Amino acid sequence: MKITNGKDFWAGVMFIAFGLAFMLISQNYAMGNAVRMGPAYFPTVLGGMLAVLGAAIFFRAFVSKVAHPLAVFPFRLWFVVGGLILGVIAFYTQPLRDAGAMVQIAHELLAGLAIGLLFAAFGPRSLWVILFSVVLFGYLLKPLGLVLATGALIFGSAWGGHEFKVKEVTILFVALAIFAVYAFVKGLGLPMNIWPAFLE
Questions:
Q1: 151 in Cβ contact with 173 (< 8 Å)
Q2: SS3 call for 119
Q3: Is residue 68 part of a domain?
Q4: What's the total number of domains in the chain?
Q5: Pair 47, 85 in one domain
């Protein structure tokens, strides 16, 4: 079989990899069920859906045709190499629990930069900016709280688009932040900080 659509091929590979990674990492936690969800339930279900979607996109790469498939979805090897090097450094230099705040922040920035470089190695800017915004949301959820992490997600994702309108993005951020607080914290009772710990 010959790849006729490089964009679908790499997108499918990426979705499958992330979906399987979510499912694999979440196996260390209790699963629960649909009524009483454990910590592993949502990442496992979401990872499975992402992997299935990735498989569909992956197989479509062999049947849909693009004139220059690899030019549509560029790959930057040096970004991968840099991201892996920084990731290894971040992994082997994890600070102790009693380390100072500046050391922990520096380590998180190093790990975030490694992830950002790995994302930036694949595809156009809009793709890796949106993916990095989702990872940034996960990083910021605990220290900054749900509202500010949602702001980072919305503004970061919007920056990855073709046009950035501050008024529209702000309205979307406020609406989604209110929905997230009332749906997940108030409604489902998930143990999340709404605001940074030092403000509550």
A1: yes
A2: helix
A3: no
A4: 3
A5: no
pLDDT the model gives residue 90: 87
Q: Residue 7 burial by CB count (10 A; 0-12/13-18/19+): exposed, middle or buried?
A: buried
Residue 188 banded pLDDT, cuts 50, 70, 90: confident
d(CA 94, CA 99): 10
69 found inside a domain: no
The whole-model pTM stands at: 0.54
Using the predicted structure, report yes or no on whether residue 70 has a pLDDT greater than 60: no
pLDDT for 101: 67
Angle ∠(140,159,23) on CA atoms, nearest 5:
45
170 and 104 within one domain = no
Interior angle at CA 152, CA 98 and CA 123, nearest 5:
105
Which residues constitute the domain of residue 134? Answer: 126-200
| Cα gap 130→154, rounded to integer Å | 9
